[in-house]
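Example 311.
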Amino acid sequence: LDGYTLNPGDLSWTALEQLSEVTVYDRTAYDNGNLALIIERVGDAEFVFTNKTPLPAEAIQAMPKLKFIGVLATGYNVVDVDAAKACGVVVANIPTYGTAAVAQMAIALLLELCHHVGAHSAAVKNGDWTKNADWCFWNYPLIELAGKNMGIIGFGRIGQAVANIAQALGMKVLAFDNYRVKELESETLKYVELDELLAQADVISLHCPLFESTKGIINSSTIAKMKPGVMIVNTSRGPLVVEQDLADALNSGRVAGAGLDVVSTEPIGADNPLLTAKNCLITPHIAWAPKEARQRLMDIAVNNLKSYLEG
Ligand code: NAD
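Predicted structure in complex with nicotinamide-adenine-dinucleotide:
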């Protein structure tokens, strides 16, 4: 499922060729939310790989031969793991394939907020070199990150990778995580409580998983504790943010900019208030998608299946 999304023809399928029969589907079942089509496609397959196409209990229970679900992602919220367990189906996700890719995207979104490269380049191509210079100073002031504080909520693999890049840019890192690795602390990196992070950070980047405890962690009351002019980046999961609250804060200028690779409902709804919010960049959940990361994802997925088959 989602095979062509993962591999629009630019990756090697060699690992998958070791299986006797492989059928690859595009993402129409996911785009249409069509459960009947998902069930029809999986049919009597024994092994299924999915990226974003959901496999709820109803689908899993309708697949009598299913033994193994490979989730081609870090987060495995697309599969009803309890239902799979009850049906004796093994579920394997892939936690490590995209750490560098997602960290790079978080920084890309942040740098775009600070430099507006796309807007300035478009203006130059429109013949607006001089006007662009004035326009940039007044409407899109550039922001230097060196010396500023980067707050990172969720200091696991991706959060730490973002911290390394932020420090290379001259930023100081404030990390918030339930689980602290004291040895990671240094002159430019310290763990803090959430309230201190909210109060001190010039940029806040989200890298915690989506749990009941983290859902809506960015909302009007946490935004009220932040520095005016803070920038927020989310490459983790959309529901970490109360979107109307963030949109209001962007429109009032309380939050200076947001860079989001994920939103609460994907694909994004036409009525999502962030679509029209001021200085809000939105990419379609692609942080994971450099070719190098997708090839790694595919290779690890097939190895997971091989390990399962070898017991
Ligand atoms: P990780 O498990 O290495 O790190 C997550 C960290 O969050 C852990 O250190 C954990 O202790 C911490 N945490 C858990 N609950 C917390 C809480 N309540 N408050 C603060 N911290 C808490 O995971 P990772 O590999 O760094 O991935 C992070 C997230 O990135 C994933 O959950 C996933 O949602 C997201 N992701 C997005 C993409 C994309 O394409 N946009 C791709 C891969 C992963």
